[in-house]
Amino acid sequence: MNKVYKNADEALHDITDNMTILLGGFGLCGIPENSITALVKKGVKGLTCISNNAGVDDFGIGLMLQTRQVKKMIASYVGENAEFERQLLSGELDVELIPQGTLATRCMAAGYGMPAIYTPAGVGTEVAEGKEVRRFGDKDYLLEYAFDADFAIVKAWKGDTMGNLVYRDTARNFNPLMAMAGKITIAEVEELVEPGELDANFIHTPGIYVNRIFKGANYEKRIENRTTTPRP
């Protein structure tokens, strides 16, 4: 099975309107920049995007919000995007905010083939409205369903032509969990190598989870908020 594609346009060729897509990354760290650009160029509409956050106004998923391609956003944090705020308050965008651990675990459940999980996060809050609550021992838990995503799009530092992936430092974040969770997983990488060139002891995502892979280019790797220690 040949998993290697020439670029993002080819790898994302069959993503169509109204699909559900998992997008790796945390803030602007480890996001699939080339794939997001390709989705904007492709112009698909009515998407449900599942990600840790919604990018910023002119980068990441924020680019797709500007072009009105996102129908629903499922995320944990959305505080740095003025266009997101405008669409939310005007009723143009459907938003589901969920605890970050729940986001991660619902991805994990999908990857493990589990239909649902129970979690204590959100019990007694608005997050619990309309959801089943079950008591285990002396504690209440919410029933949360595994994600059902058409595609997962992730970004890795290195990958081989078999789809094995290695992430670098904090860019690892949500990428490994989301790589497990899509019906079809597409990975963009900074370096694409031949099988055997990656140390098997340090592979974070086994190739069995990855359906398509391509070598990306021109990564900005933008920093969302730079915080430094003041000099004396």
TrEMBL record:
SMART domains with a match to the protein in the record: CoA_trans
KW Transmembrane (keyword) present: no
Entry's Gene Ontology molecular function annotations: transferase activity
UniProt key word Transmembrane: no
Domain of life: Bacteria
Recorded family membership: Belongs to the 3-oxoacid CoA-transferase subunit A family.
Protein name in UniProt: CoA transferase subunit A
Species name: Polluticaenibacter yanchengensis
